[in-house]
Each structure stands twice: as structure tokens, then as C-alpha cells.
Amino acid sequence: MNFLLTLVLVVQILTALGMIGLILIQHGKGADMGAAFGSGASGSLFGATGSANFLSRTTAILAAVFFACTLALAYFSHSVKPASSGSVLEHSAPATAPAAPASSDGGPNPANQIPAGASTVPAPQGPATTPATTVPVAPASGAAQIPTK
Hints:
Blueprint: H1 2-25, H2 29-36, H3 47-79, H4 88-91
Helix pairs in contact: 1-3
């Protein structure tokens, strides 16, 4: 399947480059009038009327091949199922906080008391704590951080 997808992509790129080259070679509508009176026939590779038929037909064939390759690439990209579904934030690894230094007084370190993956701060035991001693806890997934209305 991967080889076929690569082959279709290469064919599409080659037809796109071929169409660009053929369109740049073709004369505009104003050049046909000069060629009808004989001034442009000597400078053309295919003669006065031969280039319009050959180049326009070749461009039309390359455009049809390009269109078919585009439809095939769209079909292949839609038929392939993604490896994972959901948000990128949900599949990201949780960010780890840097380790807090041990307290100098030898007491318990508050950063070590937070359970991993907790979404709420546990109720304090004993005397009431001041707001300066509480530690905020980040949500478990990134999707919970997106504000809702």
C-alpha cells in the first residue's frame, strides 16, 4: 500500500511539472492572430497551426492524469485510519516537577506528600493552614486545563 501511495505521488508531481512546462511553452491568444498573417509561422516549432493542437491536447491529457492522481491520493488518505485518536494533550506524558530541596529543619517535605496523579488537594489535618503553605496541584491531563464557557 505504501509503494502504491508513493507511486501515485510521484506520477502526480511529474504531471504537475509537465503541465507547467507545456503551459509556459504555449502561445497566448494574441500570438495566434500574428501567426495567421504569416509573421509567427517561422518562429514556431510545429508550424502555424500544429502547435496549438499538439500542446493543448497534451496539456489536457496531463490535466486528466493529475486530477485522477489527486482523487487517488484523497481516497488513500481517507481510507487509512489514524494510529491513535483523541487529543494530543491527552496522550502527552505528564510533566514532572523538579524535586524540591529537603527542608533545612529536618521536618517532612510538603512536596513529597502530594500523591502522584491527584487532581485535588487533600483536606489539611490538624490546625488550619495559611494560603501560603498550600501547594497547587496540576490536573492529570492537559484536556482538563482547557477553559470552558
